[in-house]
Design brief:
By secondary structure, this protein is mainly alpha-helical. It is built from 2 helices and no strands.
Length: about 60
């Protein structure tokens, strides 16, 4: 790959090494979003499953 601004050529390993901070940061952001989405879906699913029960309440 060639950089558009400086015309420097990178192979795949160099590109990953140069962008490792950005990759790690985006990966952690995506993990947080996925975790939140899974928690919300699980909560909705449990509320729906136990909606008719008087003895079980989910907050």
């Amino acid at each position: 790959m060639t950089c558009a601004s400086c015309d420097r050529e990178f192979n795949k390993d160099e590109l990953i090494q140069e962008n490792s901070e950005n990759i790690d940061e985006h990966l952690s952001e995506i993990k947080e979003e996925v975790l939140k989405d899974v928690q919300d879906e699980l909560r909705k699913s449990l509320k729906k499953a136990f909606s008719g029960s008087k003895n079980i309440r989910i907050k």
